[in-house]
Design a protein that fits this description.
With 288 residues, this protein is of the alpha+beta class. A hairpin with a 2-residue loop joins strand 3 and strand 4.
């Protein structure tokens, strides 16, 4: 009986991994047909971006990347115009049905683009992969909080409350909306590495069936402001007792030369999970 169950499980796993491989092949085909250049940047890096709630594992005196973002932006600064990368990323302490310490990330960047241009790419990619016309909805962050959390982050900013309500109120409401949702235009205090335009950051997060799939920015291409944000994040990390990452001075030295760009980070395991109707990312990747 045990051998029979093991045989069934192995057949299911092989079928899922074949489908996973096909989806990744189709992702590459999508970008190749649109004249993007596939790149490969180091997995082990000296200077991760100093983000407050992301921890990179140490590895032989360096860190395993949580994202190839800074390295890919350096390529934009060197004259690359449309680039993408699919590869492993790592984050300490991430566990659950939608998290794993090691995961696969797709990132793509376009010089001279905005987050609206990347949104068009995203719509086309999802339609290409699902082979059907999905419903896409734009929902401003401010409207989402006023409707589903009954407060306005622009009037009374509270980072802890913002993050708590995102998980407990906003994301469940997005699941009830169905389809694909661009949660768009974040408060300036939640800009991360995105451009701030007036009272909002040009940033969106993309949800499918209430699951966050991707995070996009019109990129901040101002070295002074970027350094200020890194310093603020470093201070916050120090207050929380987190590792003090050295600044990527090579990135800061060239970011102004990019002028304008936009890019997005997409969790491949989560995307495959949704496309295959799985309940956990662990069901759609090899755990060996």
């Amino acid at each position: 009986m045990k051998a029979g169950f093991q045989s069934i499980w192995l057949n299911i796993l092989k079928d899922i991994l074949r489908k996973r491989a096909e989806i990744i092949r189709r992702i590459r085909s999508f970008f190749d047909m649109r004249s993007f250049v596939e790149v490969e940047t180091p997995v082990r890096i000296q200077s991760p971006a100093a983000e407050e709630f992301i921890e990179c594992p140490e590895c032989a005196g360096k860190f395993l990347r949580a994202s190839p973002e800074l390295q890919m932006k350096k390529l934009l600064a060197r004259g690359m115009e449309k680039i993408y990368q699919i590869g492993p990323c790592f984050r300490e302490g991430e566990f659950g049905s939608r998290h794993n310490p090691e995961f696969t990330m797709l990132e793509w960047y376009r010089s001279g683009a905005t987050y609206d241009d990347i949104a068009c790419d995203m719509k086309n990619l999802i339609s290409f992969l699902s082979e059907q016309k999905d419903k896409f909805v734009d929902l401003p962050v401010r409207e989402a909080y006023c409707r589903f959390a009954s407060w306005d982050p622009w009037v009374e900013w509270d980072r802890d409350r913002f993050d708590f309500d995102m998980a407990s109120k906003i994301e469940p409401a997005l699941k009830n909306m169905g389809g694909c949702v661009f949660l768009k235009d974040y408060p300036a205090q939640a800009a991360s590495l995105s451009l701030v335009n007036g009272d909002h950051a040009e940033r969106w997060e993309f949800y499918m069936d209430g699951i966050e799939i991707a995070n996009c920015f019109t990129e901040l291409c101002d070295s002074k402001e970027q350094r200020r944000r890194f310093e603020a994040s470093r201070s916050a990390r120090n207050d929380m007792g987190q590792a003090d990452y050295p600044f990527d001075e090579d990135f800061l030295a060239v970011v102004d030369s990019i002028k304008s760009a936009a890019g997005v980070a997409l969790g491949v395991d989560r995307l495959i999970m949704v496309l295959l109707g799985a309940s956990s990312i662990h069901d759609v990747r090899s755990q060996e």
